[in-house]
Structures are given as C-alpha cells and as structure tokens.
Amino acid sequence: MGAARSVETVLVNCSREDFYKVISDYESMPQFLDDLSTTRVDVVNGNVFRVTYGIKVVGRSITYTLELTHKPGEEVSWNLVKGDFMKANKGRWVLEDAGPGRTRATYEIEMGFGLLVPGAVVGQLQKIGLPRMLEQF
After folding, report:
1. For residues 57 and 84, is the Cβ–Cβ distance under 8 A?
2. pLDDT tens readout for residues 46-82
3. What pTM, to 2 d.p., does this model score?
C-alpha cells in the first residue's frame, strides 16, 4: 500500500476563530479549492460532522467520506469512513494564536492508498497538492 504523511504550518492574517470558520465551512470549499469539485455534509451530531468530498486527482474523479471532530477555534481532526481508492486518511488542523490578528495553522495528514496507486500519484499529492491547497486557504 502506498502511503503519504505530511505536516505543514502556515501563518495566516486572521484570527483563529475566523480561520476556523473557513476550515469548517465545508459547503463553501469547492469555491476556492481548485481540485475539490463537491462537498456534502451528510451528518452533524454536535461537534462531529460526516462529510463526503469529490476531488480530481491526476485527471480522475474520486469520492471519499470523512468523520471530522471539532474543537471550535482550536482543532479539527478527521478519519476516513470510506473512499474510492484511499485505505486511510487521518489528520487534523491545529490553530494557535500568532499575535494580534494572526494564526499559526498546522495541517497534518496521513494517507494510505491501495496497491494499484502509483508512487508518482502519492508523490504529487504530498509534494505539490498539499502546499497548493494550503495557499488556497
């Protein structure tokens, strides 16, 4: 099974609360994340959300569902429920104050893929896709 693990930290010019609103507004994400074509919030139970995503990866459309647990203004963590070719998708956003009107946002992700996913695809997701996605946020 191919696997990718990444941790990236960015500084953003807004409060933790404002950045949290952006990363938890699932329905709006396809408007600003290029590779994300659809999102659907399937279930909300308190601070736990189940969201289905549709993305394009190397010219292929795939869907996957995550269960996301929120600590409002501080953290959003997730685990894969099901996916087309992913075997694992676990990660989190951690938000920290970085001075007045600034947030240090750390994005951690571990993904596992089936045997038929080429290493080049895993590499593209890790080295190109993640930094580009962070810039879009």
Report:
1. no
2. 999 999 999 887 677 889 999 999 999 999 999 999 9
3. 0.83
